[in-house]
Design goal:
Blueprint: H1 2-14, H2 28-36, E1 42-46, H3 47-54, E2 67-82, E3 97-99, H4 106-117, E4 126-128, H5 132-140, E5 146-151, H6 156-164, E6 167-169, H7 174-183, E7 188-192, E8 204-215, H8 221-233, H9 235-241, H10 250-253, H11 263-271
Parallel strand pairs: 3-4, 3-5
Antiparallel strand pairs: 1-8, 2-5, 2-6, 2-8, 7-8
Length: 276
């Protein structure tokens, strides 16, 4: 939501007559539904959710007809475990209580993908379907042993927990990462850098999805072209408003997305030589 607010501010100040309002929602899956119901014209969605929606898989009954604008930043899978527990891998979570995100959320889908590649069943773990904030609260009270968050680095729910409790973030080993990224091509290998969170002193290998800006097909080519152009021409402002604005790149914006681009975004990327 803060990233959306920062983008809206740029668009409203740089594009004459533009009026974009950011609204906080229940994350990727809800954003796709709001767009399918024509209630929003732009949305931030995880790349895996886009993939499911476009193919009408998972929780999606109707095929998404929306279009990509830009890949904005990676959202990394964080597997946070109590520091006092002797657990050093995902399979070590058998029999433990884990916050896995809200039902149908991108985080919960990532949890199921991890279960799958570790050949674990949902009965091996006591999954708690909690929002990030609920997970953080229950973790602090030791009501759960671990929780998962798929989000940018740093993610506030984890920063909050790390100031009050000792934590570990589990790494996904290379062999597992290659199985995971082969089976689920919208995932890519990523690293949570050392000291991103209090007490986590070395780099942690994990997987990531991308946060993608999508647009409603009814938006004109001109409007989406102007939105895309303003976003890249004012990146310094975006980076000043939000840490994740620093990782926006023209090269990265057009990769790691499995749906067609909106003609307006495509026009801008072709002008810049990013798309043929």
């Amino acid at each position: 939501y803060p990233y959306g607010g920062a983008m809206s501010k740029i668009w409203n100040s740089k594009i004459p007559g533009m009026n974009v309002t950011a609204q906080a929602t229940g994350a990727s899956v809800e954003n796709v539904r709001l767009m399918n119901k024509d209630e929003v014209e732009l949305a931030l969605v995880q790349s895996d959710t886009i993939d499911f929606a476009f193919k009408a898989q998972e929780t999606f009954k109707e095929k998404l007809t929306k279009m990509g604008v830009a890949v904005l930043y990676p959202e990394l899978i964080h597997i946070v475990v109590r520091g006092d527990l002797d657990i050093d891998s995902f399979s070590g979570l058998r029999g433990k209580k884990i916050g896995v995100g809200a039902p149908g959320s991108g985080t919960e889908a990532n949890y199921r993908q991890l279960l799958d590649v570790h050949k674990m069943s949902k009965d091996d773990v006591s999954a708690q379907y909690l929002s990030f904030a609920e997970s953080a609260d229950q973790f602090k009270d030791k009501r759960i042993d671990a929780f998962m968050v798929t989000g940018g680095v740093p993610t506030s729910a984890i920063m909050d927990v790390a100031t009050q409790r000792s934590i570990k973030i589990l790494a996904i080993p290379d062999t597992m990462l290659s199985i995971l990224t082969n089976k689920y091509p919208f995932l890519s290998a990523a690293v949570i850098p050392a000291n991103a969170y209090k007490g986590v002193t070395s780099d942690v290998k994990t997987a990531a999805v991308n946060a993608v800006l999508i647009a409603h097909p009814k938006l004109s080519t001109d409007v989406v072209y102007n939105l895309t152009k303003a976003l890249f021409e004012n990146q310094a402002e975006l980076a000043a408003a939000h840490a994740k604005g620093k990782v926006l790149s023209l090269q990265g914006a057009a990769t790691g997305i499995s749906i067609p681009f909106h003609p307006g975004a495509e026009k801008y990327y072709k002008e810049k030589g990013i798309l043929k």
